[in-house]
Design a protein that fits this description.
The protein contains one helix and 13 strands.
Length: 191
Amino acid sequence: MTVSEPRTTTSGVEIAGYVAGTWDVDPVHSDVSIVVRHLGLTRFRRSFRKFRGEFVTAENPLDSTVTANIDMSSLDTGLETFDRHLRSADYFDVDNHPTARFRSTGVRPRGERFGMDGELTLRGVTRPVTLDVELLGFGVGMNGEQKAAFSAGTTVNRHDFGITFDGRLADGRLIVGNEVRVLLEIEAVAR
């Protein structure tokens, strides 16, 4: 099912097929990834294996809320040496800051999508971010459970969160770029 474009009314926003409720992120059918430039060349995309979140879809969609936590030690690059370096004080400083957190502060319509404002806390630093959210739909799972799906993303500068280590190659290129794209593909289950 595809959700139709939100329609603004005097009482808020109406969305065909919308379901109000409280939802838990299903980590088996969801993905939390980051994309960074590697060596100034490729876009290197990798996922976190451990995360959790809660969505409350309010009667008025613009009153909806999200809270989420990511286990920063669970980033899997496929190369243990690189994983250890990312967990070190040079990057995520996982020993002192094991969890990244997001808490929404507001939702507003953006054409067929929504802007979800919030606060991202990473490495002990909290900054405002806006997620570009696409509501993919609501439906019933294989066991009769109510499901909801969302796709979202934002771009942050890692320096804004105190991740200022700039490893460089001999020719001056950054090993890991400064801009980080955060991508979320979320399937959630109603409580």
